[in-house]
Every structure is written in C-alpha cells, then in structure tokens.
Amino acid sequence: MSTPLKKVVDDQLTASGMAAEQLDDVDAKYVAAGVKNVLSNLKARRAWENHIGAILTHKQAVDATGWTKQALSQAVKETRVLRLEAADGTIGYWSGGLTDTAPHVPIRGIKDVLKVWASADVQTWTIASWMSSPQPELDDRTPRQSLLDGDTAGVVTLARQAAERLAS
C-alpha cells in the first residue's frame, strides 16, 4: 500500500488541530526547518533500505519476531540482531539478519559473524552494508546469502579479515 506524502502531512495537521493556523515568519522558518529535516531523513532511510533491505522500527522488530521488548534487547546484547542508530538518534533493526519467513528469527550463523564484528570499532551501518554487499571471496554472493546457503565458516573468516582491516 502506498500513501502520498501530502496526505500524511495533511492528516498530521488535522490530528494536531493546527491545520488552519497562521504562522509568523519565525514559526514558518521553524516548521520549514523541521520538515526539511524529516524529508532529509526519509531520503537517507530510503537510500539505506535500497542497499541493506528494510530497517525495522522497534515495534516492527517485536512484531516480526514475536519476541517481547526485553527479548529483542537481549538478542541485540547477544549479537543475534543488529541494531542501527541514525544520526538523529532514531533506532532501527536490520531486517537482513532475520529469516525471510515468519516467525522471523536470526539467520543461522549471524551471531558468530556479528560477534567477530563486535571487536572492531565500526558503526553497525558498516556491518549491515558489508553483509548486504557481494563479496568476491564468496563467489560474489553477499555474506547474508552465504549464511543462508550454510557457509557460516567462510563468512566468519571473511568478517574477521574485514574487521581487522577496518580496526587497524
């Protein structure tokens, strides 16, 4: 289902009771800056999702897995789920680390790979990007696809090499 952006904005204005408000110059600049920021974040999210796949909200991740909030938090701590933090502090979860069928659970081997990356000082976005990018060492498959194909050892080895290169 697709919803026009203008409808979303109009619905929010109506719900807030501010649709008919007249803005002075200061308020107009404030609202314009906020809208510009939201649109910039939307463009960035779309660009990332085109590369790494869907970025789930906390609620979407809980719904997809059938876990409690606490179980999701524990899965992040145990490196079974990759948590992503946007520049504005918004939290999301990389869907690529989960199986494609419901109930969505961490793909086999993801914990081992994320554990290797945990030792490197890299952003989780870098890890999601690496997991979603074809690697020549994996016959041009992505590390995610290689895990789905059962090549955990190969992906762990390659992750270790990449993490060591980035950490040095």
How is this structure best described in words?
The structure is a single chain. With 168 residues, this protein is mainly alpha-helical. Helices cover 57% and strands 5% of the residues. The chain has 8 helices and 3 strands. It has helices spanning 5-16, 25-52, 58-65, 69-77, 110-118, 124-131, 143-148, 152-167, and strands at residues 55-56, 83-85, 91-94. A 3-stranded antiparallel sheet has the order 1-3-2. Helix 5 packs parallel to helix 8. The chain is elongated. The mean pLDDT is 95.
Features:
single chain; elongated
SSE topology sketch:
Blueprint: H1 5-16, H2 25-52, E1 55-56, H3 58-65, H4 69-77, E2 83-85, E3 91-94, H5 110-118, H6 124-131, H7 143-148, H8 152-167
Antiparallel strand pairs: 1-3, 2-3
Summarize the structure in short:
The chain is mostly helical and 168 residues long. The chain has helices at residues 5-16, 25-52, 58-65, 69-77, 110-118, 124-131, 143-148, 152-167; strands at 55-56, 83-85, 91-94.
Q: SSE order, as H and E? A: HHEHHEEHHHH
Strand content: 5-15%
DSSP, total strands: 3
Instruction: Work out the helicity level.
Output: 55-70%
Please describe the biggest sheet, giving its number of strands, its sense, and whether it closes into a barrel: 3 strands, antiparallel
Q: Can you tell me the overall shape?
A: elongated
Helical run tally: 8
Counting helices, strands and paired strands, the structural category is mainly alpha
Unreliable residue stretches:
none
Radius of gyration: 20 Å
